[in-house]
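In keeping with the milestone schedule agreed at the kick-off meeting, the structural modelling team has produced records for the first pair of proteins. Each record is given below as a sequence line and a structure-token line. The laboratory manager (R.T.) confirmed that both were archived under the project's standard naming scheme.
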Amino acid sequence: MSTSSLAERSYQLVGRPSVSADWRSRSRYHTAGLVVAVIGLMAVMAASIAAFASVKHLGSHQGTLAWSLGLNFLGFNIIKLGIGVTLMGIIIRLWMRVDSVKVALVDLKASAEGEQVRTSGELDTPYGRAEISEQAPGPLWIHKLAEYMWTPLLVMGPMVVAAGLVLSIVQANQTVGSADFQHLGAVAQGSSILGEALMLSGISFILGTILSSLRRGGGEVQESAGVPVQTLKVPYTVWAFVGLMAVGLMGAIATFVLLVITTGSGNYASWSAWLPQASLFSLGTLLAGIVLALYSIGDVLGFQFSRIRDIITIGR
């Protein structure tokens, strides 16, 4: 394996497994994702218990509510990290599936008969417009961006949320209602929401990496079978997914900046009345983008299953 390939695998935390990898072995990502999610759930439960315990004494327990909110955000982030780790395992299994189908499809392929087979151009399919080529397509710029961005985002998300938790603990030790209490609360809340947005963006980029792997893997399977390679053109749902992710992440960053610079100002009360809602809208936008990514993955899988059926039944 080349030095650049090793560096790429290290940077992305997960790489394409060896062709000889045992598909029957238990995935360590599967187990790790479950463990991480359980740890996150325990953190959320601890924060909720602390918050419930302070309900009868709200006036004297604002500090408890401050750090329990920070712990809640950290628990949510850890659960999302569990989702990300599980998706890493899916990437590994996807490439195992590609290598297995490449071996089996050659023997299952039917003998092509009839009209001349097209090796270039475009065609309509039940799943959208597709391009025809002789070789498997390379990754598009959007796929390369996804493959290299999800790792730093998954690392930065928990770090930023953890910083928000530390700030909320410091806030809990300040006098309730003081300027320091207000300022620390605003920065802690902004940090927590920004960390959640970074984590959701990282998950979005992992889904983009899965789409990239499906595109390349599907092309490799067809090329290995000696048939024209049909590849779905990037659907509108993918572009909408990218747009929603960008809007959500930029919105979370803007909300964090505004929370920091407006706290302590004379009109902070008016800003704080709507900024938290705006930040939740940013998170909702990111989640909506994830739905579109999953929708697109479903379409690509449907197209590839249909393509394999055609290769087996009609040989082209």
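The second protein of the pair:
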Amino acid sequence: MNKADFSVSVLAAAFLLAAVSPAPGAAPSSLSKTGAGLPQSSPSEADLTRWDKQLTLPPHVSARLDWARRSFVPSGYQKLESLAHAKASAIAAGKDFATLEKETALDRIFSAAGISGMDASEAAFLVLAMATKDMDDDLRMIMAEIKAANAAKQKLRDQINDLNKWISEAMGKAGDHPKSSDIDNTKVSGKPPATAASTQPTKVPLIRSASLQTASSPVIRLEYVKAPMIRPLPPRNSDVSVSSLESLLDKIKRRLDGLNELSEMTSLRLQMTMDRRSKFISTLSQMMKKTSTTQDILVQNIK
């Protein structure tokens, strides 16, 4: 994807984000925004820590999942897990809760077990709670990747600072002494001097690293940027030309710009998903409080 495509994608994601209103009582995001509504940077460590704490299911929902894990035979629990995996991406995409509950209750897993009506509805709530937990696992993984990307960006910024210092030092040195390129030794003898090789500026080696890549989380298929490995700068060499240092500086700046752009898109997707999760959890929690706590028929029939 080129830079123009990224810019369009970021703007589109911003409009989507503006359309997602936070759930009642949900903690608002503290990401700084520009006038256009775009985050100025990736989430800070404080943002990610706060979001991670929000990835906790209500106690009564967690208790129901613990009950299911203890009560169902392994094969039955695996069937519910499989159905939950299939529903997690729809939850992350913001699909209507009522539609999800209805589709889940009508799944063939329950009809094949002779479960219908209220029992199927209670089973659907259980599956959706499991799906939410699957979604949370993906979100934690993406947050960890964002932390790693933030660390990579800081390394790139440090390298930019180091290169700027090296360039200043090299330019200052060049101002005190004539450049070797200013002296045309070929006019004296008609051939290059024997010491020409030692006076030629040394080129700085390129930093070899993998290109920036994106990936999708395993369950909800949320795309995110993979944190790149940042190799250290080559050892400082006083013979390296200013032009070579500037070339390397430009390369690192472009890489940082690309990583910033990809990280911004990841941040927007994560924030939208967190908003949707907050709404979903609120509805799921309210509905599960109204359901029965005894579901022996489910345990007996789903094997």
